[in-house]
């Protein structure tokens, strides 16, 4: 760890500001094109299956790159990596703005996602390096703000932009912000992470890409194509086999790309599992509610996105406050209350009707997001605090990877339940059948929340004390 003298060589607030700005626009892009897809389809003359790849490819590239970031953080300086991540993202944004056709636009999204995939775990690792254990909760609360707020405002911002301008403005608006952040990073960013002697293991990188990419692709298609489709089954098979060989290799080689021994810590393992559940519930809910408001209640895409905004704002405001509370009391109590809130808010969503008050939905969703803020970043921080300093890059990479997989699984499971229940519903009106499917999906969500609630009681009262015998403050 840095000595007191070394710590004076960088300004922590400047680093935090630069990273939050960079991560915010990087993560915002994950959902920015969602509402704009119909406009892009019409402009570039493509069908919905092709258009969907603009969001799927972004998620897949993220999922492939995130596991490799632990290796990159040990191999290259933090300053060089932040500059590289932002430069790649800017390049992708430029290509997207001028893309003449679909293949070029898809390439732009993949380039953007490569920058974004490096940025998120890198930001978490840097925060955990520059903040002492007793202040990490507040620091990670700011990360929670980015994770909650950026993806949630994406569809709303996108809806407003494509209604007022063309979809290309989605790139034009992001570009100057990204460029300013890149220039400031070049001028002000300092190195804060420790480098370790490590070498590139190409086989591990290929196996990791096939493993995590295969699973994410399988889960992201299972909801729409069905669990038994050839595409999904082949993706799962490739992903599972590659992941098996990847894990075996990481446990054998001297310097693994991704250290699976982080799971030897019970606190890290249980907090990662609970993080997957809460992310699955968050992404699943954000997918199903707009389907209800748009397909059943005929609300516009823009207004539908606007309905989710109070929840995102509430979570954004709550995240830093919850982080400070975590620093004082630990994550156990917060997780128990958070999962109780998720369970209680799943019950009204499991009883949606044709005339359910939209205001009521906004209020329940906002409460749900406040419950999510009590769980997501506090448990991430508790899990990583349980690891020794040299495993923190691996812990953050693993946590981000598992969260992506959790989100994909959650969405796939809830959409599958919704589709199958709607098909088998004894309802003459297709809309009633669809509502029945959505209610069934939220019953499954309630069961997931109940599992999370029960598992929360197994957490240690003060996880910060796990860290190499360091006493909790």
UniProtKB/TrEMBL annotation:
It comes from Bacillus paralicheniformis. InterPro entries: EmrB-like, MFS, MFS_dom, MFS_trans_sf. The lineage of its organism: Bacteria, Bacillati, Bacillota, Bacilli, Bacillales. The chain crosses the membrane at residues 12-33, 53-73, 80-98, 110-131, 138-157, 169-188, 200-220, 226-247, 268-292, 304-326, 333-350, 362-384, 405-422, 434-459. Pfam families: MFS_1. It is found in: Cell membrane. Residues 15-464 form the Major facilitator superfamily (MFS) profile domain. Keywords: Cell membrane, Membrane, Transmembrane, Transmembrane helix, Transport. It is a multi-pass membrane protein. CDD domains: MFS_LmrB_MDR_like. SUPFAM superfamilies: MFS general substrate transporter. It comes from the Bacteria. This is Major facilitator superfamily (MFS) profile domain-containing protein.
